[in-house]
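A further point concerns the way the authors explain their paired sequence and structure data. Showing the layout once, in full, would remove most of the difficulty. For illustration, here is how one protein appears when written out as sequence plus structure tokens:
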Amino acid sequence: MPNSVLSRIVLGTVLSVLWVLFEGTPAHAQSAFKTRNVVLIVSDGLRWQEIFAGADPTLLNEANGGIWDKEADLRREFWRDDPRERRRALFPFLWNTVAVRGQMFGNQALGSAARVTNGLAFSYPGYNEMLTGHPDARIDSNEFGPNPNISVLEWLSTLPDLHGKVSVFASWAIFKDILNVSRSHLPLQVGWDPPYHGELSERQALLNRLYQTTTRLDDEDVYDAWAHAGRYDLVLHSAHLFDHFVAELWERLQALPAYRDRTTFIITTDHGRGSGPTEWKEHGKEQKGSENIWIAVLGPDTPPLGERSHTAEVHQAQIAATVAALLGKDFRKAVPEAAPPIDELLGHGR
């Protein structure tokens, strides 16, 4: 997919994931950055606590974590006495690759804070903040409707060298509103929409048939195992699969000449969650700590500073301008209210 921008939101069992792949054009050679492709990956409500400390010992039980059986198997897979080993068991790619060759923000125990600024800490307000560069107090519901704000995806797709080179793949049909497809005309693969069109191979036709015939628990989402259900065992397995899927994508892109050593991954979450035996299941302004997120970045222009400590607070709103900056574009010229990029991820402010 040379010279294109692909935005992708995918589901691992607990997690909605936004993957945005931006591929530059020859004009991008004028930029000081080596990055030609940016992949933005957004997990749904994956807590910073698990990212930086692994499985939570207070939730590895039936009383708090809803684990019905096989608790011993779960502990063998994900429990280690040392939290550094514990997080590596849960997220081997994040800790063996991203933390070694990139940067990770959000470990509050080390004085590194990453937060949402929309004051609500749930999905639509979070995706709006992340993709438009600023919160919007009008967006106070996941059913808000078409987004009046211009996202960095929409803006990039209007530029001559990136026109027609943005696509979105998502589990959640609400992304049609978040990205205002009636205005942006971004091609989206979301929710239960069949993934393939036109003349199909036998395999593609089978996948379309599965989309059409699978019984739906939710009309807006393809299958997902949510933390809202209170099953901490499923959360851990899904988080582990999420890490595996990200690793697979990285390895696949690094095997392709158009992407190798010219691709940056930005990996984050749309909101945090509460803590403690009950609050971990929910998020929002009533659940303290839901504003806390994490941001991990791996790419040729990001200095390998690893797990950050004692840094200035970074915000979800800075992701939009960071994505654009890595492609040599200035999103804030078009959207002055957007937050600035995170300089440390661009090789500045070391």
In short: The longest strand covers residues 16-23.
